[in-house]
Amino acid sequence: MFGALLSRTLPHTLTLLGYHIAWGSVLLGVFAVTSLLRILVALTFVPRLEEVRKPRGSMSPRQLVFRVTRFNAFSGLLYEVVSFFRGK
Questions:
Q1: Residues 11, 30 contacting (CB under 8 angstroms)
Q2: Where along the chain do its domains lie?
């Protein structure tokens, strides 16, 4: 709804610090304004985030890859073969 309102109210040309910006479509202005608003909201709330659970013990990079990507056993074997030949 806010985007529709912006598309009706934004001008087709914008003068900012002496520069004239003419976008082909008002939608570019809508995307620019909403992007700036989203960044502002993110910057407001990110500092307030805190970890609720205790972090697990340290994990090796290999364990992290398999945990995140959820490889199966065959993929683990393939990873071992590729890393063996890559090391030579």
A1: no
A2: 2-48, 59-88
